[in-house]
Amino acid sequence: MTLNWFKFASPASFYPIAGRLIPVFWILTLLLLAIGLYWGFFETASKLGGSNPQKEYYRIIFIHVPSAWMSMWLYIVLVGWAAIGLVFNTRLSFMMANAVAPTGAIFTFLALWTGAFWGRPSWGTYWDWDPRLTSELVLFFLYIGYIALHSAIDDTRRADRASALLAIVGLIMVPVIFWSINCPDPNQCAALHQRSNLTRIDGNILFSMLTMTLAFWMYGFAATFMRLRSIILTREAENTWVQELLNARRQA
Amino acid sequence: MLRVFWCILSRDLTLAMRRRTDVLTTLFFFVIVVSLFPLGVGTESKALQIIGPGVVWVAALLASMLALERLFAADYEDGTLEQMLLTAQPLSLLVLAKVTAHWILTGLPLVLIAPLVGMQFQLTDNAIIIMMLALLVGTPILSLIGAIGAALTLGLRGGGILLSLLILPLYIPILVYGSGAVEVSRIALADTQPYFALLGAFLLVALIFAPVASSAALKISLE
Amino acid sequence: MLEVTKLECRRGDRRLFTDLGFALNAGTLMHVRGRNGSGKTTLLRTLCGLFIPDEGEIRWRGESIRALAEDYRRDLLYFGHTNGIKGELTGLENLAIGATLDGDRLSEKAIWDALERIGLTGFEDLPTRMLSQGQKKRVALARLILTKAPLWILDEPFTALDVDAVALLQSLIADHVAAGGIAVLTTHQEVPLTSGQIEQLNLGN
């Protein structure tokens, strides 16, 4: 593990970098949120769809779709860091996976919550056992399982590795679960969600949706790095650099 | 290889025979859970026929879940599991043998008692046969996937609850197709074939990957 | 035969030892000493391959033990804090299963003899949960008589044993080392050797 790029894999050198990046990500988050929300509210059509159009309420799409995307992306990010941690035995990757999980869970919850509110006027129900809804719920369970397993194990090393393995198993199972819910009767398949097709979407709607997604990404970075910094401090508490940092803080 | 597999299998079966109550509790748990539903939902035979397959499968999921907690726990406490990790045998082979023994003790009895609970739900003879077949293919998958969770939660406080939190979501495909097969058999028997093809495919995949994942989990838990 | 280089282990977020290195040749006994919590057990478990070190490498006959995997474990006998025997099974059954898993084909006669030598005549056919603490430990130690593994890693093997058993175990270890084996142990008992050498390793400050 003496490769050069592993230098940043040490918590001690990553801690200050993350500290410098956090404000940048916050500024970008606010900026992109402002643009995305403005565009979503004022520059897009007030109706969506053809013969039976959805009225103003469709605008929840600008929160719902980006958070649903984020929930899935962040799970893949989590599994990626977990897998790197298992293979290279780098502690920072486990901390990263650990820091991503709550943000992912929050986005999953947000997607479910906004989905319910969107479902009420458009489908006439808060909840439906639609494949995507159900899969999102399962994804939420996976996040909760990851966090629960990690916090149930006292030994951080075992906690890191065990929950990493769980996350990987979860990732393998997600497509199977999605498919089984999507197609409960293998003799015939159907789904309630309309097929989404990005190219058919109106340019303004697409723009604000993508801007919001970017904003959520920036928020994801900011929140993850903040959490990561506190995880690093707790876990490295006995190391000299943390002690020096604390002393410097006390004197200031 | 076969000798080692057989050695662990017969060891676990012998152990269970010297402590019979553990086997019976799972079975009775299954029967009791299933019997509670008609009392709660009402005893009208139409309704029972509709919910029957799902109820039996959910009960099977929970029963195998409960039993899984003990899969590695006893061996973990007395240190025999640690010794297994240090033998010159591939750990996944030992895990597979243990899971097989576990299924014979907790999964197979559910298959055999299925006609009895099927009758409680007024299921037809065909539906009962399909249910037994579906359980026969499905319960080993439950044991195999569950073993991963059992290995991960080894020796933890409140491990049982945690285990169900981790593993139950992963059981969804088996639940969907297992109860789906029984559901469909009430209408057209021939339509059950794709369900069994899928369950069979799941079983094969689980047989290959689950022991590997479980042994990785055991190594992590025993560090 | 057993080489350890630049070993570093952490337990939780605490560093137990760092930059640890030693090499053991055939016919060596190594005493690992240190206060409670200095990492003796972790070191032994790392040597077994149960615990993956944060840094460093362990080599057996020149090859990394992680690469050797099962081939290394065949050469290894570990005796930990737990006895590793099932209470519901008899001593005979316990040892027979252990031998099968180690890939040895032992006759029942060999196991009877081992149990007799360890001082359990008359208890061979009882479920081991009926036995006393010391007797259970003797069942577990009978593996030392049956095994062909050249590397023994023993964590506090002398606790809960009476004077006779301690003497027997000392002679077993001495014979093993004299025959060209390696033994690594944590203990407060001295093992007198007639041939071979004793190394000391102190963990902690």
UniProtKB/TrEMBL annotation, chain A:
Membrane-spanning segments? 21-41, 61-88, 95-113, 133-152, 164-181, 205-225
Return the Pfam families for the record: Cytochrom_C_asm
Which of UniProt's keywords are assigned here? Cytochrome c-type biogenesis, Membrane, Transmembrane, Transmembrane helix
- Tell me the ranges covered by the Cytochrome c assembly protein domain, including all copies: 22-182
What is the topology of this protein in the membrane according to its UniProt annotation? Multi-pass membrane protein
User: PANTHER family in the record, alphabetically?
Assistant: CYTOCHROME B_B6 PROTEIN-RELATED, HEME EXPORTER PROTEIN C
Sequence similarity: Belongs to the CcmC/CycZ/HelC family.
Query: What's the protein here called?
Result: Heme exporter protein C
TrEMBL record, chain B:
Cite a single Pfam family from the UniProt record: CcmB
| Primary residence | membrane
Please provide the record's keywords in A-Z order.
Cell inner membrane, Cell membrane, Cytochrome c-type biogenesis, Membrane, Transmembrane, Transmembrane helix, Transport
According to its UniProt entry, the protein's GO biological process terms are: cytochrome c biosynthetic process; cytochrome complex assembly
- Membrane topology, from the record: Multi-pass membrane protein
Localization (cell): Cell inner membrane
State if Transport is listed as a keyword: yes
Q: Tell me a Gene Ontology molecular-function term this record carries.
A: heme transmembrane transporter activity
List the record's Gene Ontology CC terms alphabetically. plasma membrane
- Transmembrane feature ranges: 21-41, 47-72, 93-116, 128-154, 161-182, 194-218
- What is stated as this protein's family in its record? Belongs to the CcmB/CycW/HelB family.
PANTHER family associated with the record: CYTOCHROME C BIOGENESIS B-RELATED, HEME EXPORTER PROTEIN B
| Job description of the protein | Required for the export of heme to the periplasm for the biogenesis of c-type cytochromes.
Name of the protein: Heme exporter protein B
The organism's taxonomy opens as:
Bacteria, Pseudomonadati, Pseudomonadota, Gammaproteobacteria, Chromatiales
UniProtKB/TrEMBL annotation, chain C:
Q: Does the keyword Cell inner membrane apply?
A: no
Q: Which GO terms describe its biological process?
A: cytochrome complex assembly
Documented EC number(s): 3.6.3.41
Query: Carries keyword Ubl conjugation?
Result: no
**PROSITE patterns recorded for this chain?**
ABC_TRANSPORTER_1, ABC_TRANSPORTER_2
What molecular function does GO assign, one term? ATP binding
| Any one Pfam family match given in the protein's UniProt record, by short name | ABC_tran
Which Gene3D superfamilies is this protein grouped with? Answer: P-loop containing nucleotide triphosphate hydrolases
* Enzyme class (EC, first level): hydrolase
Alphabetically sorted, this entry's keywords are: ATP-binding, Cytochrome c-type biogenesis, Hydrolase, Membrane, Nucleotide-binding, Translocase, Transport
Can you give the residue ranges of the ABC transporter domain? 2-201
- What name does the UniProt record give this protein? Heme exporter protein CcmA
Source organism per entry reads Thiorhodococcus drewsii AZ1
- Lineage, uppermost ranks: Bacteria, Pseudomonadati, Pseudomonadota, Gammaproteobacteria, Chromatiales
